[in-house]
Structures are given as C-alpha cells and as structure tokens.
C-alpha cells in the first residue's frame, strides 16, 4: 500500500499549513484557502473504515489509519472519523508528535509565569458555584462544559438556550493507567521502541470492533489502547535505568469497570514480559477523572461527542459559538470549536471573540 498511502497522505501533508487554520477554527467561518480545504474535506467527512476500504488492500496502512482515527472516540464506521485520523497522521509527517522535556506540566507553568509577568493573578482551590461569586468584570470566560454552565449560571440563562445546552451530548469515557517500570517496555517489534506514542489494537477490524463495543455501551475484551512511553526520549522523567509509561482505553461513559487487566493484556500481547517490568501502577476510572476535572463528564476527556453534527454545532449552532446570551459571559472549553485536543485553540478563539465584542 505504499503508493496508495503516498497518494492519500501526500496532498494532506502538503496542504497542512493551509488546512490547519480552518480545522482549528470555528466551523461556520469561511476558509481562507477553500480549494485546499475542499480537497481535505471530501476525505475528512468519510468514515475511517470506508476510506481504508477504498484506498488500501493490505492490513498495515489500514491499521495505521484506524489507530489515529480512534482518537476521535467515534465508531470508525461513522463520520468524520477519517478526518481525525488524516489530520493526526499529517501532523506526524509535517511536524512530528513532540513531547515536552520534563513533562507537560511545564507548558502550564510557562503560561502561568507569563501571565504573572504581565500583571495577571491566578487563584486556585476555590470552586465557583454561581456567577454571583465572581468579581465584576467586563468579560468572564468559563472553561466549563454545558452541564457546568447550566449549574453556574442557573436561572439567568434564557429557556431556549438552556434547552439547547441541555441536549448537548457527552461521549465515551476512559480508564487510564500509569506505570513505573524497571526497564523499557520489551516490544516484539523493534520499531515500537522508537516511538513516544503507540496505538495498540492490531488490525483495523479489531480496533473498529473495540470502538463499536464502547459506543454501544459494552466493555471491549480487547480494547484499543493509546500508550505513551515518553522516558524513551526524555529519560529525565525517571531515575537512571527506570522508565514510566501511561495508557488508556475507551469505555462507555460513567463505566465503573476496572480495565487494568485488559489494558495490560493488550500491551503484553505486543510486548511479552511487560508485566514483569511493572514496579507500581495507578489506575483512574471515569469517576476519578471527573473528580479531578468536572469537565470530564463520565470520563469523557474530549468535552463532548465530536461527530459531524456536534462538530459544526458546538456547543450549539451559532455564528459566535463562544458567546452566551448573558452579557460578557463566554465559554472557552473543549465543548466549543475546534473541540477536544492538545491545541489550546478553544481558549484562544474565545478570548478573541470576547475582545472583539467587549472592546468593539
């Protein structure tokens, strides 16, 4: 499938700088590069399974697409699972999948330091239960999902907008396991020892079956596992000779099933001897994740289902999806465009929307 893969991914990777501003922006904004976006869009709206069947004859390229598309937390037979997979793969080709030296916390620390340098203040450890608890401000940006907005804003929200927010849908949850390891994971395939991020699931049919089980409300016996082994490229995260890794799998929202054994069995399948390397582990179920961050409703780390309907209308269909009917109150969470992901664009775009409206 080499030639077929190059024909598929070459144009997407080459157009990436033209595509990204539209993909990482509000869905209803006209793209600045409509031709490039149309080329990508006709592929992106497809299902991952349908795209793979139409392009590939072997198992490997289809499995690569499946592992990336499953980040969408959608069934791989639904739209736009292909778009998520293509975008992540194109990013891998164009810029790689980098990790932060010293841990991702350093991103938040750097942003906090810059805010303080500019005169900003940060207060933590206090739950805001009502807008009445906030000081007077020209603009308030809430990094919450629709469920929390309804609770915080209460009866102030007009009935029609309330009903639209109440219909907002949340997706599957995750079960996450962190490991302290006595050595690197003993992968059967040596290529796996060169990657910080891995998708474990076997073939596309296996991965698709796992995700179909989850969205049908059932627990997969062989779950698709997203695994990160960042000490391979950033050894300072662990003592000399030791390693860390984490992995998660998708489960029905709010599931109480401990998936540790199933996750480790899937790793062991591709890395015999993994369990002997485990010094310690910590498992977080959906309820644990939601306690840590109430935005993870039912363990949904994406801020809501991101199918085609709820990608275009996120959290509701509106020209300005960040504004609310309440004067000066905006949403800036992953429940707004462009949705879940490690990009920060929801907050950036919400801030720009607030500045345009509040400062004229």
Structure characteristics:
single chain; 360 residues; alpha+beta; two-stranded parallel sheet
- How large, in whole angstroms, is the Cα Rg? 21 Å
Q: Approximately what portion of the residues adopt beta-strand conformation?
A: 5-15%
Q: How many strand elements?
A: 7
Give, in order, the helices and strands: HHHHHHHEHHEEHEEHHEHHEH
Largest sheet: 5 strands, antiparallel
What is the approximate shape? Answer: globular
SS-based structural class?
alpha+beta
Give the CA-CA distance, first to last residue: 53 Å
- What is the mean predicted local confidence, pLDDT? 95
Number of helices: 15
Give helix % range.
40-55%
Strand order of the largest sheet: 3-4-5-2-6
Low-confidence stretches: none
Characterization of the model:
The protein has 360 residues and is an alpha+beta fold. The protein is 41% helix and 11% strand. The protein has 15 helices and 7 strands. The strands form 2 sheets. It has a 5-stranded antiparallel β-sheet, sandwiched between helices. The chain has a two-stranded parallel ribbon with strand order 1-7. The radius of gyration is 21 Å and the shape is globular. The termini are far apart.
């Amino acid at each position: 499938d080499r030639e077929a893969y190059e024909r598929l991914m070459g144009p997407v990777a080459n157009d990436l700088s033209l595509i990204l501003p539209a993909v990482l922006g509000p869905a209803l904004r006209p793209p600045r590069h409509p031709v490039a976006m149309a080329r990508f869009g006709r592929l992106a709206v497809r299902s991952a399974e349908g795209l793979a069947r139409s392009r590939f004859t072997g198992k490997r390229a289809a499995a690569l697409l499946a592992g990336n598309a499953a980040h969408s937390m959608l069934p791989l037979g639904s739209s736009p699972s292909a778009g998520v997979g293509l975008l992540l793969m194109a990013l891998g080709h164009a810029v790689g999948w980098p990790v932060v030296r010293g841990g991702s916390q350093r991103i938040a620390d750097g942003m906090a330091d810059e805010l303080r340098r500019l005169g900003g203040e940060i207060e933590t450890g206090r739950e805001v239960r009502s807008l009445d608890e906030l000081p007077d401000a020209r603009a308030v940006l809430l990094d919450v999902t629709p469920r929390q907005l309804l609770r915080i804003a209460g009866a102030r929200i007009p009935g029609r907008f309330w009903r639209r927010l109440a219909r907002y849908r949340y997706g599957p949850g995750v079960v996450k396991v962190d490991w302290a390891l006595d050595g690197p994971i003993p992968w059967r395939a040596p290529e796996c020892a060169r990657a910080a991020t891995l998708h474990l699931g076997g073939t596309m049919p296996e991965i698709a079956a796992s995700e179909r089980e989850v969205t049908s409300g059932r627990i997969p016996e062989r779950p698709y596992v997203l695994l990160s082994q960042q000490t391979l490229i950033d050894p300072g995260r662990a003592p000399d000779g030791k390693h860390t890794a984490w992995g998660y799998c998708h489960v029905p929202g709010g599931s109480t099933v401990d998936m540790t054994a199933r996750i480790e069995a899937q790793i062991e399948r591709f890395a015999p001897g993994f369990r002997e390397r485990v010094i310690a582990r910590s498992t977080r179920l959906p309820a644990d994740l939601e306690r840590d961050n109430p935005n993870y409703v039912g363990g949904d780390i994406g801020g809501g289902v991101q199918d085609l309907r709820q990608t275009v209308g996120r959290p509701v269909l509106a020209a300005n999806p960040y504004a609310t009917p309440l004067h000066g109150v905006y949403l800036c969470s992953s429940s707004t465009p462009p949705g879940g992901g490690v990009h920060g664009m929801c907050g950036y775009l919400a801030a720009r929307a607030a500045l345009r409206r509040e400062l004229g």
